[in-house]
Design goal:
The strands form 3 sheets. Strands 1-2 form a two-stranded antiparallel sheet. A two-stranded antiparallel sheet has the order 3-4. The termini are far apart. It is mainly alpha-helical. Strand 5 (384-385) and strand 6 form a beta hairpin. The protein has helices at 2-12, 14-23, 26-49, 85-121, 125-129, 135-145, 148-167, 172-199, 206-228, 237-240, 254-261, 274-301, 310-326, 330-333, 341-366, 370-379, 392-398, 405-425, 430-458, 465-488, 495-498, 504-509, 517-552, and strands spanning 58-59, 71-72, 264-265, 268-269, 384-385, 388-389. Among the domains are: 19-49 and 92-295, no CATH class; 54-83, no CATH class. It has 23 helices and 6 strands.
């Protein structure tokens, strides 16, 4: 019977069978079972210790009159403390949920990245690539098989977790919805982990720690923000939807309940029911996972391929822009009344920050490396797309191996168009709209400068150009702000110099000094000159690379 079960798994997904056989040993299973049950016991005993032991004073779990923070403790008719067991079960359920989220996502990410790193180091990943399995089958097998022990430990906690939820009078549908969100968010994060494992192998043994540590920090920060309930009607609200805890954060917390209930997207209220908010969150997770899987398939087939094709990037940018702009404060800034100068600039600033992070990902996902560009420079005139010969502009917009500057510019225009439309239809005054549009121009030009600089650095012959490129880009974005802050203390002093740092859009949006029209125009001209110089250098490097390769033949 067991043999038939194993054979069925092998027939369905040989890679999954390989991973299971390598991990599901009796010793490992026993350790995970003991660790899971001990963790559940520790959580239960910890919250048991929070219960009041005498009727003196106050406690969160007492039913008496509400004092400043907690309720008074009284005895019931039987002489026992009158405990609010529903709140106790809710707290225990919530914290076990948080622990489960952190374990399954963070541990799973570490194991997946470390597994790919090990396969790459042992040179077995290329052997797997040569197998007749499809990339989807191999990657899905790894996603299911590598963290199999983590899945086992979490599944063993489900009965206890479900018992806590039902005793806390949480609807079974909401609990099942939470489990669905854990699955879809795991799909999203694990897809990202596999992609990072494929493209970030140059980080070596530090790669797994960096990936899992970054996600641990993100989940910790979003969990604290969700608990505080301070992000209503704010573009950063989208970050809450990347943490499954958000859907159950309102249990026993009136502030969070109001925060979740007031969630709006393009002024449509989606927090009225758990079905709507869970469904909307699932859609966000699946959209993100879809584009990550597109990148996974490209990078798994060809190590030199970019993470996204140019056409895929346009769809991704459009989806990202629609989702993020929808979380702006439309109810106040577009359908409200009164003066909303601060809210307008705050929303634009947050949207620009989200777009900056997204554009940095696009730069990494679209920019080809030296060897790819060298081949493109040699064979561009013979290149075709779906049987049709492309001219230079078409090749730069759609081509697989062409430089990505024009494609990134198109993506920037898509993002800026979305933010500009939001600014123009808002009820903000004319000055706020003009300032917002100028800030968006600076944000777009800075993104193109960073894209051009990245392409220049990746054209170097240096063996460690990828490591060097990342170091230079981090320095270019951080060091100017630090240096200007130390030398001039505030953007109010020497504003023109600040316009060449990553803080330029914020300096324009929140002028602490007199940012004149002439200063802004001079800054834009300076950006244009700098970008033109970089594009000229890229053109020269490409011509030189193509000629050198031809001479070598």
């Amino acid at each position: 019977m067991q043999t038939n079960w194993i054979n069925q798994i092998g027939d369905w997904n040989p890679q999954l069978l390989r991973e299971i056989k390598g991990r599901l040993h009796k010793r490992n299973v026993l350790i995970i079972m003991v660790a899971s049950f001990l963790t559940q016991l520790v959580v239960f005993l910890y919250f048991q210790g929070l219960l009041p032991s005498n009727p003196i004073g106050s406690n969160r779990y007492c039913r008496g009159q509400n004092l400043e923070i907690y309720n008074e403790c009284f005895l019931d008719n039987s002489g026992n403390l009158d405990i609010n067991w529903q709140v106790w079960f809710q707290d225990t359920f919530s914290w076990l949920s948080i622990l489960g989220i952190f374990v399954i996502i963070v541990a799973g990410i570490y194991l997946l990245i470390n597994d790919l790193s090990t396969e790459e180091r042992r040179d077995t990943l290329n052997f797997i690539r040569l197998s007749p399995q499809s990339p989807q089958s191999i990657l899905f097998g790894k996603m299911l098989g590598v963290p199999i022990l983590v899945y086992l430990g979490v599944c063993l906690a489900i009965p206890f977790h479900l018992w806590l939820g039902l005793n806390a009078q949480i609807p079974l549908g909401l609990i099942c919805g939470f489990y669905i969100l854990v699955l879809t968010s795991s799909l999203l994060y694990f897809s990202g982990a596999l992609l990072f494992g494929l493209v970030g192998s140059w980080l070596g043994s530090f790669q797994a720690w960096l990936g899992s540590g970054a996600v641990l920090g993100f989940l910790s920060i979003t969990q604290q923000v969700i608990t505080s309930g301070t992000t209503s009607n704010h573009p950063f609200k989208i970050l809450n939807f990347l943490n499954p805890y958000y859907v159950i954060s309102s249990l026993g917390n009136d502030t969070n309940r109001m925060d979740v209930a007031n969630v709006r997207w393009f002024n449509f209220l989606i927090g009225n029911s758990w079905v709507e908010i869970i469904g909307f969150t699932v859609v966000i997770h699946l959209v993100g996972a879809y584009f990550l899987w597109q990148s996974l398939q490209r990078c798994f087939r060809d190590r030199n391929a970019t993470m996204l094709s140019k056409q895929q990037s346009y769809w991704l940018t459009s989806a990202f822009t629609i989702i993020t702009v929808g979380f702006a404060n439309w109810s106040q800034l577009v359908f409200g009344d009164g003066s909303y100068t601060y809210a307008m600039r705050e929303n634009i600033a947050c949207l620009m920050f989200l777009d900056l992070c997204f554009c940095l990902y696009l730069i990494a996902a679209l920019t080809p490396h030296r060897h790819t560009l060298q081949d493109w420079a040699r064979y561009r005139h013979f290149g075709t797309q779906q049987g049709k010969k492309l001219n230079l502009v078409q090749d730069l917009i759609w081509g697989e191996k062409s430089p990505a500057i024009l494609a990134i510019a198109i993506n920037v225009m898509i993002a800026i168009t979305g933010l500009s439309l939001f600014a123009l239809v808002s009820l903000a005054d004319r000055e706020d709209k003009v300032v917002s549009l100028v800030a968006l121009i600076f944000a777009g030009s800075l993104t193109l400068i960073y894209a051009a600089l990245t392409q220049l650095l990746l054209l170097m012959k240096h063996g460690q150009r990828l490591f060097l490129t990342n170091g230079v880009m981090i320095g270019v974005m951080i060091l100017p702000v630090v240096a200007l802050g130390m030398l001039f203390s505030s953007p109010q002093n020497y504003t023109f110099l600040w316009l060449f740092s990553v803080a330029a859009p914020v300096v324009v949006l929140y002028p602490s000094g007199e940012v004149t029209i002439i200063t802004s125009i001079m800054g834009i001209i300076g950006h244009t000159i700098l970008l033109s110089f970089m594009l000229l250098q890229i053109t020269r490097q490409l011509k030189k690379a193509g000629e050198s390769a031809t001479k070598a033949l």
